[in-house]
Amino acid sequence: MPVHELRISLPPWVEELVPWERPHADEDDRMRLAIRLARENVLRETGGPFGAVVFDLTSGLPVAAGVNLVERYQNAMLHAEVVALMLAQAAHRRYSLHGGDLPRPALVSSCDPCAMCLGATLWSGIGDLECGATRDDASRIGFDEGPVFPASFDYLEARGIRVRRGVCRAEAAAVLQIYRDRGGVIYNG
Amino acid sequence: MPVHELRISLPPWVEELVPWERPHADEDDRMRLAIRLARENVLRETGGPFGAVVFDLTSGLPVAAGVNLVERYQNAMLHAEVVALMLAQAAHRRYSLHGGDLPRPALVSSCDPCAMCLGATLWSGIGDLECGATRDDASRIGFDEGPVFPASFDYLEARGIRVRRGVCRAEAAAVLQIYRDRGGVIYNG
Q1: Which of B7, B91, B122 faces A2 most closely, judged by CB atoms?
Q2: With bands split at pLDDT 50, 70 and 90, how would you rate the model's confidence at A87?
Q3: Dist. CA A134–CA A146, nearest whole Å
Q4: Which of A33, A107, B154, B160 has its CA 20 to 30 A from that of A94?
Q5: Which residue in B4, B74, B90 is closest to A89 by CB distance?
């Protein structure tokens, strides 16, 4: 039977873990929240070792959080970044988080985005992209990032997106190692 | 208030339009269904000028259909290809449409995939990617396809995905022109 409807929700622990009212002033502070989501997603066995948060950079407040939900929903698109971006857009009821009355939005991801998430970042009107673990860190445990090239990041920067990579890299990469040590599933297509 | 849940469903006309029981033997036949979805999405004013279908290439039957729902849900990720892939995975309850007992799956899109959809195709275990209108056709009416390079398609082909582009290109590009002539919204991020 064809399916015509999707329902996706975050594991309930995510809402409780995120300090929605606490301003996150610097990039390390923001990144540590994304890493904490990634780590908890592994330890609570709710998904893959990736976390992401959309922040309002003016207030420093989290707007939406995402964790990897690929296995939970058997849906290959539910990377942490896609989940966070979708929920941020739903919160603002706007497909673009950029412009008008909205403050400058940042996507903070515990790992370099794959090809899909990099494209999603561009379409979402994100102003700043902050990444933790690198493509190399992810591929070391078997995750493919897809067709992302240096020119891909240049493409985003040429459209006004400020990209920062390797933020708290060691802490972020440690979560990938925990996942591997626990025998987590590597779910490339 | 943070949002923690998403609900997405196809416009009801999609289920009625797709001939779920009719085998589609050749690529033109498959592409014409994707193009028809794109055209109806414009004419019925339910979204952007893009349609996509996941087919089981063994039987020739459609598995899942997608149309662009970006404006409908104010969600920048709901390109036709992402919608079709998510629904196909939900139908099979599998994040990868490839391997095991599953027949070879094709993603048929009325237009070259953007960077996000190209990544999503890779993660979804698609065996064949068939595209109608080209990146040039889309950019001619103002749509950005993002950081997709010739090397991006090579990356997919190196992983066993057969890519065919320009299938029924003129028919597919005509839908883009209809959308433009009606003053449809161009929703890059």
Answers
A1: B91
A2: very high
A3: 13
A4: A33
A5: B74
